[in-house]
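Re: the pair you flagged

First of the two:
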Amino acid sequence: MFCRLINEDLHKWRRLPGRKPLVLRGARQVGKTIAIRMFGESYDLFSELNLETPENAALFSQGLKPQEILQAIKLKQRVSVSESGSWLLFLDEIQACPEAVAQLRYFYEDVPELHLIAAGSLLEVALQREQISFPVGRVEFRYLYPMSFEEFLGASVGQDMVDVFRQVPSPVYAQEELFRLYHLYALVGGMPEAVKEYVRTRDMVAVNRIYENLFTAYIDDISKYARNNSMAKLLRFCLKTAPLAAGRRIRFAGFGESAYGSREVGEALRTLEQVMLVALLYPTVSVSLPLLPNTRKSPRLQFIDTGLIHYVHGIQHLLIGINDLSADFRGGLLEQLTGQELMAARNDIRKLPRFWVREKTQSQAEVDFLESCESFPVPVEVKSGAVGKLRSLNRFMEMSPSTKIAVRLYRGSFKRQQAGSATKFSLLNLPYYHAAKINEYFAL
């Protein structure tokens, strides 16, 4: 059982004066249930109900009031809690019981002292199919992704290395070891069961067996949310193809060298996005805040995890001992991994990374990511090599006079330098293993 950063956020939620029932969202097998069980150890009483079990779901379908449901749970589990004691009720797989979703508002209104967390896989598509929604203003959400690099360090090496990783900038003595471990993280991935198996065996063959079972389970899950056989076939194709296109811009029409059209592929990928197996990162053409996505342009495909990507590709052996991920033969690995880190850095919102494009007939440019600092956007390039080759980044800086700093993630140590030709700016060169710490460097 690995400590997850979501645990810190859950404790903050627990202390909120106007605390609402919390819904933890995330793809299957990213560790939602284990994280909540670990959090539940801090309570006097922790009750867990899996709502895929008919007798548990029946508690919410009999028209009972929240207090009556809680009394039934106490009797069923033969537990009690004092007036001053703390109680966490965990409703797992809540998508299996639409009545329980509707009941969340009444728990908030009638039993505000109860701490209630719900979770489930396939939430979005299940609720859409049943045409119900979470009660507006009566619940709040958190998001869990595969393990971040920081969490991987805690699981595979220990807290001392986590403490070193958290230092900004990194101490010189630890940089090469952090690069080595980040390359290992890219290989193993962040799915908790795979990380657990690697920590136990240090054997990638054993890890592959985990990914074989996990990917098969994702494929089998499609039958639970595809509306017909034709849709199921398309979803399976898109899920099997997505790892091969991860980190790159895609076109819906003919996706994966298929004969499928734009509309049907778009619907399939958006469905996979709902279950959080992929994310469609749309570019912006803006050079000032807010960075609104342009959904008419081709998105970049973000897959759930690099470990699954390498399993599907069958290329783990090519990453063993690699010295620079930006020199990876696929080209998109470091962009995928950086996107993974940026998404996992925020548990309180579903924040998809943005990137910038300028698509003109004679002048095309693309910046890998855009972050924000105070009132201006910050372009982020993921690239090693000479600074003089950052043409797209320079173009962005020329078009955005309010932006004074830019970031390059590369295979090297932290350094600040003046850059630009027509427009001068401050370029922060950061080690690419610190993608999740970009905003902390702005204060240096």
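Second of the two:
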Amino acid sequence: MAALKILDGIRVVSFTQHLLGPAGTQLLADMGADVIKVEAPKGAAERNHAGLEAFPGGVSLYQVSTGRNYRDVAFNLKDPDAKEAAFKLVSGADVVIENFRPGVMDKLGLGYETIKEVNPGIIYVSCNGYGDDPSVRDLPGQDLIMQAMTGLADITGSLDGPPVGVGSAIVDVHGGTLLALGVVSALFNRERTNEGQRINITMAQAAMDLQLEPMTYSMNGYPVRRSGKGQTNGYSEAPYGIFKTKDDYIALSVSPIKNYYEALKDDRLLPYLDERAVWDKRKEIVDLLKEIMLEKNTDEWVEMMRPYGIWMQRINTQTGCHDNPIIKAVHATVETEHPRAGKLKLLKLPINFGCGEMEIRYLAPELGEHNAEILRELGYSDEQIKNMQESGAVASR
């Protein structure tokens, strides 16, 4: 299949670090946009940090997870020459994305009002915790903080246990998806109206959007609580949750209780065949199934119950997920070779287009790898580039 070029010809300049901004810009890059990341000479946060101290060959897997298909420049934005080069770069861009603290880009002379004077069609995206309201804009915005702020942690976990944070930075990643959606939508609008615009992506809204169903219940007078043991939420009919088996764990999803009765041939389920029981007697049903599920191994339950239309799944570890033939059939990953880290597996662009397939054009570039290339595109001579490197305006490579 041909390389995916849906956003071919669109230039995106990214002043982002950590996870949300880079995750969103990588989606745009995977769809063919020319993404240029502007880093400080010391490198962005994700270049110098990785969970689990995962640095194969000295390369941060945190950066690799969101670092492909962009070009990289390292500018000292406190230097007048570097600031001028950055201004030239954004002045000719289609999209600018930043996640500095509110006001920082204005101080650098790269704020939206300044840029739109020379580039009226610019799509300018700011990513932050809570938006521009002075009363909240300087509060810390971080994934777990947002899970706590918006009640996501409070509705996760068991009823008699503590609130639980989700085991992945889902607010950041969802925020990055919203960022990419906003950019593509704004570009489409510009095609029709010739108008650029400013977009603001807040982590608070991303965290609330992740709770679309339960948040709607609670906002309209149906408060959601953490679930009882064995249930994964407090608002679905029983059985719906994760149960201990004789040897492992199994997830039971929404299936009619009569299907369980037909599969198990267990008369203890007879009192719950009424349609209201799955709501009114949720705790009793869950407690009974907790007892029943302990009687057999997970594979035995799957073999016995799936023919009766019961939705269930063994709880995979992430490693088990990688090797699962069902997941392999989704073709969600790609293998590549990094010059320092060696062979790597990465998640692909999670959208399957009929007009082309994502290709890896650049793989997690080194800091400032494309300094000279980009500066030449901006009209700088080799002598000027050398002077900027010697002065520290741009990182020397």
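The mean pLDDT is 94.

-B.
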